[in-house]
Design goal:
The complex is a heterodimer of chains A (about 325) and B (about 300). Chain A is flat, with a radius of gyration of 24 Å. Chain A is about 75% helix and about 0% strand. In chain A, helix 5 runs antiparallel to helix 6 and helix 12 runs antiparallel to helix 13. With about 300 residues, chain B is mainly alpha-helical. Chain B has a single domain, classed as MetI-like (MetI-like fold), CATH 1.10.3720. Chain B starts with 8 loop residues before the first helix and ends in a 6-residue tail after the last helix. Classes of the chains: A mainly alpha (about 325), B mainly alpha (about 300). At the A-B interface, helix 1, helix 7, helix 9, helix 11 and helix 12 of A face helix 6, helix 7, helix 11, helix 13 and helix 14 of B.
């Protein structure tokens, strides 16, 4: 039994992640169980005949015990079938509803595009700001960056978004205030139209990420082995590259993952502000119209992204941990 | 004790330690507070006054409809009127009452649930602790805004379900913190002594542990409040939180958002949707200032200096 400790810890984390996903899917599924009994009537409308309601209940599988439905649902999700939307159903029994997958597919891609565009700009910039602020701590530069980010953190995303709209779209029409993109929009045009939403998200994320990076680096530089290395008379570049950096990967990766996970949530509000056709806006619309299958699917996607990102961060910090890499 | 000859070291040592009243000690602390904390406290007090006396201050009623919709700034309506002719200033003032009130109620409920369960977990430990902690882990694995959206779609958007849902979701974070700090206290001898002399769970929670973990909890209350406040504002902005005609800052931003397009022609109209948004931002910043000062004072940490 000579499994390398790194592999063992990674496997443990993976198992834990799968467990979490299972329980989260259980929580999301049991949401429907909490619905009042007559919601089929509410979806189909007052005029729905008893047969229509009964057929709809059968389609949802409400005549089966809940654990059977749970496994059907999970099985469907794994094979890419999220069920059909509640909207588009009529009391007459005519079914014009669409598959949830068809609703989500293109929008998920849009959201991914916006999120990765934001991450590409925000992550390097935030890390640079955070590390330099930590290295030149208490300088004027540090203070200015700190005060700006504190103000950004305390403001709601939509406030940042509307300020940007006011200055960059309404007063000086540089960027469009509505991110109106469709699948056949060319890449350049797509980037141009998503500039304001991406900028809003970047501002919020950079603030969080920069502050966390700064705190992590300062914490690290205060540890005894860094002081030891300095007292030995090593050059500061060697201290940073060989002593600080190997131990800094874990906190930095955690900071990045935490903020990308935060991006998942921030994207909802920003998409609504800019009417960006993404999955966040879809979810809000579905919540307003109480379209439960769509809400469930969106919630599951968001939660899974969140869990996977955190898992990834954990694994990277385990793999780069010098203490685990060189066991005694 | 004190002689007329002035100061002697012997006198000072011999003096009985001055017992200050609670008010005196608070005043001394306040005098030492940095200007940011003072600013924060003044802003919070102003907000509370506006919230408490809203009907006396507001020139119009909360949902009172005047004949002129989209009125410009100035004249009868200081900040103009919205799309159906409600006075923006009055709605801002009533919004303070609703938004802050709901956020406060939610935070209190979150502390009641999260703090209560955390103390139970910390005191009984073992199986109960494991179970509660794992439940919290699962709940925290779902982003809270997403979870709140899902639950709101199931229970419908009304104030009661909004308060309960956000409170339950937020109580997970309260649980984590309270459990962590309470764990350090439950191992103390005086808790052991209380257990041995047969005190019940409620007594140990209230009389032995709670007084000793108060400072971090109070600071957390401020942070949780601003977080809850921002979440509720975001949900209301998305149209699934506080419902009209109740005045609320989040939904006011949504209702007046289209005005921003007219900024080129009338800057003040363009700023109108930013008023409720900045009302939210200013309060959150103020709370953060006060919490920062409080944390520094109670923990003795001076922000990595």
């Amino acid at each position: 039994m000579t499994v390398h400790p790194v592999i063992r810890t990674v496997l443990q984390r993976l198992a834990l992640g799968v467990m979490t996903l299972f329980f989260v899917s259980l929580v999301i599924f049991s949401g429907v169980e909490m619905l009042p009994g007559d919601f089929t009537q509410a979806v189909l409308g007052q005029q729905a005949t008893e047969e229509t309601v009964a057929a709809f209940r059968r389609e949802l599988g409400l005549d089966q015990p809940s654990y059977v439905r749970y496994f059907n649902w999970v099985g469907g999700v794994i094979t890419g079938d999220f069920g059909t939307s509640f909207s588009g159903r009529a009391s007459s029994g005519v079914d014009r509803s669409r598959d949830v997958v068809d609703l989500i597919g293109p929008r998920l891609w849009n959201t991914m595009f916006l999120a990765s565009m934001t991450a590409l700009v925000a992550v390097p910039l935030a890390l640079f700001l955070g590390i330099t602020a930590a290295l030149y701590r208490n300088s004027i530069y540090d203070r200015v960056v700190n005060a700006t980010t504190l103000a950004t953190i305390s403001t709601p995303e939509f406030f940042v978004a509307y300020i940007l709209i006011l200055f960059l779209a309404a007063l000086n029409p540089i960027f469009p205030s509505l991110a109106n993109i469709s699948p056949d929009t060319a890449l350049g045009e797509r980037i141009y139209r998503s500039t304001l939403p991406a900028m809003t998200l970047s501002l919020v994320i950079i603030a969080h990420m920069m502050r966390m990076t700064r705190a992590a680096i300062i914490n690290l530089l205060a540890s005894p082995y860094i002081e030891m290395a300095r007292l030995k008379g090593l050059s500061s570049s060697r201290v940073i590259l060989y002593h600080a950096l190997p131990n800094a990967w874990a906190p930095i990766v955690n900071v990045v993952a935490f903020n990308l996970a935060y991006l998942v949530v921030g994207v909802v509000v920003v998409e609504v502000v800019f009417v960006y056709p993404g999955i966040g806006q879809l979810m809000v619309d579905a919540v307003t119209s109480r379209d439960i299958p769509v809400v469930q699917a969106c919630a599951l996607i968001f939660a899974a992204t969140y869990i996977v990102l955190n898992l990834l961060a954990d694994i990277i910090s385990i793999v780069t941990n010098p203490r685990l890499l060189h066991p005694r | 004790m004190s002689t007329s000859e002035g100061y002697t070291a012997k006198d000072e040592v011999g003096q009985v330690r001055v017992r200050r009243t609670w008010a005196q000690r608070t005043w001394i602390d306040l005098k030492k507070a940095p200007p940011t904390a003072w600013l924060g406290m003044i802003v919070i007090t102003a907000y509370l006054i506006v919230a408490l006396f809203a009907p006396l201050i507001a020139p119009y009623g909360e949902a009172e409809i005047t004949p002129n919709s989209y009125a410009p700034w100035g004249g009868d309506h200081m900040f103009g009127t919205d799309q159906i002719g409600r006075d923006i200033l009055s709605r801002l003032i009533f919004g303070a009452r609703n938004t802050i009130g709901i956020a406060l109620a939610t935070t209190f409920l979150a502390f009641l649930i999260g703090g209560g369960f955390a103390l139970v977990a910390a005191i009984s430990r073992g199986w109960t602790d494991q179970f509660l902690s794992r439940v919290v882990d699962v709940l925290m694995a779902i982003p809270s805004l997403i979870f709140a959206l899902m639950l709101l779609s199931i229970f419908g958007s009304n104030v009661t379900s909004l308060i309960v849902i956000i409170a339950v979701l937020d109580s997970t974070r309260v649980f984590r913190l309270t459990r962590a700090v309470a764990m350090n206290v439950v191992v103390m001898e005086y808790v052991e002594a209380a257990k041995l002399r047969g005190e019940g769970l409620g007594w140990i929670m209230r009389r032995e542990i709670l007084p000793n973990i108060m400072p971090p909890l109070v600071a957390e209350f401020g942070l949780r409040f601003s977080f809850v406040f921002l979440t509720i504002a975001a949900l209301s902005f998305l149209g699934v939180g506080i419902q009209p005609p109740t005045a609320d800052w989040g939904s006011m931003v949504r209702e007046n958002a289209s005005l921003i397009q007219f900024a080129q022609f009338d800057l003040r109209a363009g700023i109108t949707p930013l008023l409720p948004a900045s009302a939210i931002a200013i309060l959150t910043i103020a709370v953060n200032f006060v919490v920062d000062w409080f944390l520094m004072k109670t923990s003795g940490l001076h922000d990595e200096h």
